[in-house]
Design brief:
Length: 153
């Protein structure tokens, strides 16, 4: 067992877990932030995406014990006072069907738009390509990312 602290959504948490416990399970089981979902467990679907130091990262693969000193942001901490422009766009365009993958989609999109605030359609498609949606909401997801880019500029 390892003892370490994690800074998640601006708050420091003292954690005791096995050295190899993925961040996903520490977030859900130790800190009780359940917005980050389990999808495939092998980093292929993007459902578990969070930001680590501002970069979209698959939390199912990353041992939490290695993240001491990092800034971790989950869907719950994306914005505290109001919806993030990506969340606003998702809501405005009614993107989700089942909603299961949407936290990961939103976290990927918000990180992408921070890096590329004025993307074209192909750049959006490429950025979001690694996040799977079983409901196939891809067209609405791409439109929402484009709308969020406009809202952020």
């Amino acid at each position: 067992m390892a003892n370490y602290s994690l800074k998640v959504n601006g708050k420091v948490y003292n954690i005791t877990s096995d050295d190899d416990t993925p961040l996903l399970w520490v977030l859900r089981d130790e800190i009780n932030l359940v917005g980050t979902k389990y999808g495939c467990g092998i980093g292929q679907c993007g459902t578990c995406t969070v930001h680590v130091n501002g970069v979209a990262t698959r939390s199912c693969l990353l041992p939490a014990s290695r993240l001491e000193g990092s800034e971790i942001t989950t869907i719950e901490g994306l914005e505290t006072d109001k919806l993030h422009p990506v969340q606003e766009a998702w809501k405005e365009l009614d993107v989700p069907q089942c909603g299961y993958c949407q936290a990961g989609q939103i976290m990927t999109a918000s990180s992408f738009l921070k890096q590329n605030p004025n993307p074209n359609k192909e750049e959006i498609r490429n950025a979001m390509n690694a996040n799977l949606c079983r409901c196939a909401s891809y067209n609405r997801i791409e439109k929402a990312v484009a709308l969020a880019a406009k809202k952020m500029s």
